[in-house]
Amino acid sequence: xxxxxxxxxxxxxxxxxxxxxxxxxxxxxxxxxxxxxxxxxxxxxxxxxxxxxxxxxxxxxxxxxxxxxxxxxxxxxxxxxxxxxxxxxxxxxxxxxxxxxxxxxxxxxxxxxxxxxxxxxxxxxxxxxxxxxxxxxxxxxxx
Length: 143
What we know:
Largest sheet: 4 strands, mixed
CATH topology: CBS-domain
Structural class: alpha+beta
Strand order of the largest sheet: 1-2-3-4
């Protein structure tokens, strides 16, 4: 079973970090420009939250808050679940499913090193299955 470190080795890190006292509009612009669904909120070097598209909709837009005036700390999801590169892919998927989230900060010794989305994990699972199917087909066809 694939480890998260295997997935991380195949791509460049995705780490978009903001402070809790920045306004939502700045984070949303960055999310749009970089085509990411969430940014991490770090204070004094420690991960304190995550701000996602879901937070934007539920805690800003629906409540009629002004994104130019609302601070991220007031609308972020505090204490997000995290993983480490040594965790396996399936445990990360289950963890995300149980907590109803789509983005997973990856920490090494308490420091953010990357972010994985449920899409990253599921696409990696699909690629692994496709490889297994191709190998089985070759075997069946007389390898």
